[in-house]
Amino acid sequence: MTHTPxxxxxxxxxxxxxxxxxxxxxxxxxLTQVLEELEPQERPIVQSLTxxxxxxxxxxxxxxxxxxxxxxxKEVEHVLAVAITLLLDRTAESKKGxxxxxxxxxxxxxxxxxxxxxxxxxxxxAVLRKVSAALDAxxxxxxxxxxxxxxxxxxxxMANLRKNYPKSWQAICLQQSQRPPLIxxxxxxxxxxxxxxxxxxxxxxxxxxxxxxxAIVLHSALAxxxxxxxxxxxxxxxxxxSIQDAGAQLAATLLQPAAGERILDMCxxxxxxxxxxxxxxxxxxxxxDVDQERLKRVSETLSRxxxxxxQTQKVELIVADATRLDWWDKTPFDKIVxxxxxxxxxxxxxxxxxxxxRRASDVLELQGRQRNLLAAGWQVLKEGGLLLxxxxxxxxxxxxxxxxxxxxxxQNAVRLNAPGQILPSQTHDGFYYALFKKNGP
Length: 441
Description:
The protein is α/β, with parallel strands linked by helices. Helices cover 41% and strands 16% of the residues.
């Protein structure tokens, strides 16, 4: 579905910022980091433009190659990519998106706002008019979504999917090129899912419960039908809800925290799973992350949800490399969750910059880090305790292969029921879940 993003700044300015953000991604920076540096009024529309431009990258560049006589500079190329994406997103049938003349005029204006592109105003005008005419000529026959052949995934990524998912790789690619749903997790310490759904209805926001993922019942997930800014989500800043993919909400359900248990979150940032555990039971939580700034986000999340230490629960945040164990007080944990660093190949619909940032060699390096975390976690887990291993990856090298390795290396590990590999769908991202019980010393 296409839509006109909510905006508080001129479209030309948004196009300029979006093109510059894409340049940052192409230089190796995370789009999340780039967007965090923007002013609040800039972020919603720039995020929408950059995300859609990356999703339509292959198609927009095929058109650039077709209608631009010689390769443009990177700065001009990125403005063209944003502008052509806006044209692609405008469908005559739905009457949604910006008018063609608005897109052309605002893109030409954007060229004039940036020293590196000011010379290309005439080129921008001519190319966009030609592209618009070509798209209009295709009419209703023009496809509205990427096809696998127009995928923005690099060749090594596509080869991995074809090898491991020969019957479903095309569906995976198509799913990950779509805008994802907005899923919230209701803070059940503050209200029930039904009560919060009623609050949304009163605000004329349509939502429906996500009742299960991978045949596992979810009690707190709601899908908001039309994405809205965080600032417009009722009760968000009062701790009534958090934004969290439905697939990610399986973690607390699988680990089943109980009152009084000592639980370790070894890679806690940004804090969604730690918060969910605390929402479910009065536990003693130790949350570790190697990045101090990211751990601050965990603290902010827990404060917003009113989940800080109190009479019935204790929360300890530690900046450390969890694998080194110099932070450990020698008291074993009842349960451990390891949401391990990974390729993030399962969450591309939410982070379309990932295929542009990852390299094939990253997977092997990440495998080593994942195994180090598993080994360290097993050392600090009590006998009879549970360890939940999670990645937001769809590459078996980071999921099934790691679980198989872990069982070979640890004779006292018993594998319990968990979903294993979950592929992306209309209601959730892609994840891998493996649950182990420590059976003996």
